[in-house]
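Milestone M4 deliverable, item 7.
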Amino acid sequence: MTQSSATPVILWLRQDLRLSDQAALVAAVESGHPVLPVYVLDDAAAGDYAVMGAGRWWLHHSLSAFDASLRAKGSRLILRKGNSADVLAQLAAETGAVAVHATRHYEPWHKAAEQAVAARMKLNVHEGAVLYPPALVRSKTDSRYRMFTPWWKALLQHMPPPKPLAAPQAIPAPTLWPDSDVLDDWSLLPRNPDWAASFGEYWQPGEEAAKQRLRDFLPHIDAYNEDRNFPGKVMGVSRLSPHLHFGEISPALIWHVAAREAGEGAAPYLREVGWRDFGINMIDQSPDYGWVDGRAARGAFPWRRPDQDEAAARDLKAWQRGMTGYPIIDAGMRELWATGYVHNRIRMLVASFLVKHLLIDWRCGERWFWDTLVDADYGNNSVGWQWIAGTGFESNPFGRIMAPLGQSEKFDCGAYIRLWVPELADLRDPYIHDPEEFGVRPKAYPRKIIGHMAARTRAMAASSQLQKN
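Output delivered:
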């Protein structure tokens, strides 16, 4: 079969924008056919979970970087917009493509799209988004897990994951390329105003940048178990989450490189890599976990409703803008807006503050994170918010209310606050953690929208009301 006469195969790309350890790409190349790499922007299929705000900024740059990587291999990226099954069927009709290769994804809209494509053409799906297929991690009674610790122990029985696949030396191209959209025409980047103007100071999307970030983190991995608790330690965490979400690096590659370089010292970090798989495990079993309480009994909780309560709406806006009067909360929310990212401890603190101090439904926070995080991930986001809210299958008891002021001092967040809340930059420790309590609150900085003890009392009363009902 010569390249000039061969019918092509389609490489359908979604959250797998990489060349290394890309099983679908390798299979497409090994088929002996020319390969048509295609990314379909299918917002309608995902509905409320279409890539939003900060994620669209990342997606633009990730697609650009991936196209450059493909061109270095003699290929290129085709961009199309619309319903995935319709677009791929049309592309097959245009080119005579005989099959589609794709990475399996577990978000409900991706699973539905795979079924729709498979109904119309030959679809070959390959693993690569997870350490191990979630449906195969089972108990001795052949049941699925919904609690992390037993799930993790079971997953370890299947580790390490398969060795990463090398990127193809070349990707066979068709004689004629089909038409492609122009990336800039998709308007993924914000304009008027460009609220992501500073993102480039903190992030470089793309596969090579992901590998470099992993290399930069490896010398610090032995200290991860301790340093990951301190938001101010820049290298305390790997910050690979957006690269993982968009598939610029595979979890298997991270596992093998970290284990090779750090041995047993990598274990705490690999456990956190496993948390991502656990989130996928949860949405694979409960596709609506992003908006439906895991514990049905929690559905009657008396949340304050910003869409019905002006005071709740004001509180939600203050939280979103980082104007709550709690320095560690405000620092986190401002960092999130400026960079599209926030440290996991801060994520827990700001989430706990919203649902327990402000008694606002966790779904309001989940929606804000989905819009503002460059690593917004359906599984991780859903599991994290439901854990904090006490609504998940595995969750923090609602009565355990994180004390933001105490956490701020315990984890040495003074410098972190000074960086993101400039109104407080002149305050020294310990005053910066609670300037209102110490009587040094600058006029430019807001008062607390609710006191910690008052918030705790209100939260426990609401929880008691639920129990009575």
